[in-house]
Design a protein that fits this description.
This protein has 128 residues and is α+β, with helices and mostly antiparallel strands. The chain has 1 helix and 9 strands. Strands 2, 3, 5, 6 and 7 form a 5-stranded antiparallel β-sheet that branches. It is elongated and about 85 Å long. The mean pLDDT is 84.
Amino acid sequence: MLLKLPSRILASSMYTSRFFIPAFALLAAACLYGQFESGAILGTVHDPSGANVPNATVTLENTKTAVVLTSKTDSNGYYEFVNVRLGSYHVRVESAGFQTTTTETFDLTVNARQRVDITLQVGQTSEQ
């Protein structure tokens, strides 16, 4: 037995299909493209005893383009940079009463959440 649908239902469903399928395809492509273009760099800043260091200045620098992003640690010593372009970076941390610490250069890869925890040494702020 064949079911006959009224023509206005067929027309409505064809219009919906013509609109939503291409829109969904574009949205999916945009989401996939974004996954390959960025990542995140996050971590916690500690003192030598392992206690968290709040309000430390954290600087993220792309070593090839010299683009710099700056943030502060929260009350738990946590920091995070999101939507960071892929590339080579290092992190520098400064806080009163501690020596400035700079990490080795590392690569941020596709869709990574790169964890970079840092332990500060007690002393005067100095450039390394």
